[in-house]
Amino acid sequence: MEAQEIEVKYRVIEQDALLRALADHGVSLSAPVLQEDQAYAPVWWDYGKPKTGVPFGRLRTVQGTHLFTVKTPQDNEMACLEAETVVNDAEQMHEALLQMGFRPTVQIVKARRTGRAGRWSLCLDEVEDVGPFLEIETVTAADEPGLAVQAQLDAWATGLGVKLERVTDTYDSLVRLAQQHST
């Protein structure tokens, strides 16, 4: 069965207040783990073009393990059909992606802390060049309406009672924009 990952993302304004609110809601976060991601896009796609319906690749390294993921946005960039697998050789996977018509876009480096709130996964990320973010996500059947699920996730985040700024861009877009502004 095809799975869909649906998420909402927030720029964290007051991290200490967020940590207290999460603890008050029974969410305990893991220790930070470094994730290094290389994002890939089809050679014909470029930033500024719509992402809906376009497959994007990611090659992630976490503690020596390499994960290859393909995400295809459905309702929006935060509701994606997703397939993921462990790969033994990141360099060979990179070469395979090039041969399949993908090109590397940006690298995303982050320290990620994870937790759970019921069936939802939470990630508190410190993203290099762009700062702290909270992601709330769930995996559903491919035909689940992404916008409705995002509304539920957003209601939970709003219920935390802390200042968060909802963003609709993915990390690759945010990192690319930050890098453009720093040059």
Automatic annotation (TrEMBL):
Pfam families: CYTH. It comes from the Bacteria. Transmembrane segments: none annotated. PROSITE patterns: CYTH. Residues 3-177 form the CYTH domain. PANTHER family: CYTH DOMAIN-CONTAINING PROTEIN, SI:CH211-156B7.4. InterPro entries: Adenylyl_cyclase_CyaB (IPR008173), CYTH-like_dom_sf (IPR033469), CYTH_domain (IPR023577). This is CYTH domain-containing protein. It comes from Actinomadura physcomitrii.
